[in-house]
Amino acid sequence: SRITLRQLLDHAAENGYGVPAFNINNMEQGLAIMAAADAVDAPVIIQASRGARAYANDLVLAKLIEGLAELYPHIPLCMHLDHGNNEATCATAIQYGFTSVMMDGSLKADGKTPADWDYNVGITRKVVEMAHWGGVSVEGELGVLGSLEHGGGEQEDGHGVEGEISHDQLLTDPAEAVKFVKETEVDALAIAMGTSHGAYKFTRKPDGAILAMNVIEEIHRRLPNTHLVMHGSSSVPQDLQDIINAYGGEMPQTWGVPVEEIQRGIKHGVRKINIDTDNRMAMTGQIRKVLTENKGEFDPRKYLKPAMDAMTKLCKQRFEEFGTAGQA
Ligand code: G3H
Ligand code: 13P
Ligand code: NA
Ligand code: ZN
C-alpha cells in the first residue's frame, strides 16, 4: 500500500534502519524492485527522475506504479520524485500520485548552476507548503553534489555542475543545515559529502579525504530528528564492472561508495540512500552477456529476464545490508 516518505522514514528512524531509494524508468525495473522487496519483506522507495518521467510518460509510469502496488499490497510503497527542479515538476508529480517529492533547490532550475541560500530556502519552503496541503512529503538538498576528489566541476557522466565549485559547497555546512531545516520544514534533507552521481565517483577506494562521512555525523549531532539522505550512493561493485567488461564493455576502472560507509551513515541519521547506477550496471551486464553468448538472439525477454533477475539480486542485497529487510 502507498506510504509517504515521512511515514516510512519515521519508522526507519525508530527502528534504526535505512531505506534504499531505487530509480525506475521502465516495467522491468519496477518488477525487479518489487520482487526483491517481496522476497525479503522490505518497504520500498521507488523514485523517478524528470528524465524517467519523460522516457516512460507520466501516465504510463503512474499506471505502472498502480499495478505494482496492487500486485504487492502488503509492501509499503513510497513513490518519490527524484531531483524536482521547480514548483511545477513537483506539483505535476503529486497530480500523478507521487507520495513524496524532492525539491532540489541546491541548483537553479537548469540543474547545473549552484543556487544561493535565498533561492534554495524560498523555493523549497514554497514546495513544502504546497505538498503538505495534500499530505505529500518533501526532500530538500543543501550543498552541491560533486566529487571532492575531482574538485566538483564537470563529471565524466555529464551530470556535473557548471563553473567552479568551491570545496566548501561540496560539503554541507552543519550550522546551515540546522537553519535550512528550520526555515523550510522539509521532511528529509539531502546533504553533500563528496559523492557524485554516476559510475565515476572516485579513482581509488575512498577514504575520509574524499568521502566525508564525518560531515554526516556532525549534522546528525545537531539535527538528531531530521532524516538524512545520501545521493550518489551506488557502490559500483567490482564484479559488475567485470561482467560488463568481459562481454564487450569498456568501462574504465572506478570506485563507488563502499557499503560499510553507508552502514556507518545509517548509524548517524541516514535514512534514504539513492541508488541508480548499480542497477543500471546489473542489468547491462546481463544484457551484454546474453547477446554476446547468443549472437542470433533477438527476443527481448531473453535478455531482459536475466537483467531483471540481476537487478532483483542487487536490490535484495541492499535491503539486507541497510536493515530494511523484515521491516515491511
Ligand atoms: O539523478 C540521478 C539519477 O541517477 C537519475 O538519472 O536523470 O539520468 O534519469 P537520470
Ligand atoms: P548513483 O548514480 O550513485 O546511483 O546515485 C543515484 C542518485 O543519487 C539519484 O538521485
Ligand atoms: Na531524491
Ligand atoms: Zn541524486
UniProtKB/TrEMBL annotation:
EC number in record: 4.1.2.13
Keyword NADP appears in the UniProt entry: no
Pathway: Carbohydrate degradation; glycolysis; D-glyceraldehyde 3-phosphate and glycerone phosphate from D-glucose: step 4/4; Carbohydrate biosynthesis; Calvin cycle
Amino-acid positions noted as binding Zn(2+) 2 in the UniProt annotation, renumbered to this chain: D104, E141
Cofactors: Zn(2+)
UniProt GO BP: glycolytic process; reductive pentose-phosphate cycle
InterPro entries the UniProt entry points to: Aldolase_TIM (IPR013785), Class_II_FBP_aldolase (IPR050246), FBA_II (IPR000771), Fruct_bisP_Calv (IPR006412)
Record GO terms (molecular function): fructose-bisphosphate aldolase activity; zinc ion binding
Gene3D superfamilies in alphabetical order: Aldolase class I
Record-annotated membrane-spanning stretches: none
Residues at which dihydroxyacetone phosphate binds: G198, G232, S233, S234, N274, I275, D276, T277
Family under the similarity heading: Belongs to the class II fructose-bisphosphate aldolase family.
Protein's recorded name: Fructose-1,6-bisphosphate aldolase
Species annotation: Chelatococcus asaccharovorans
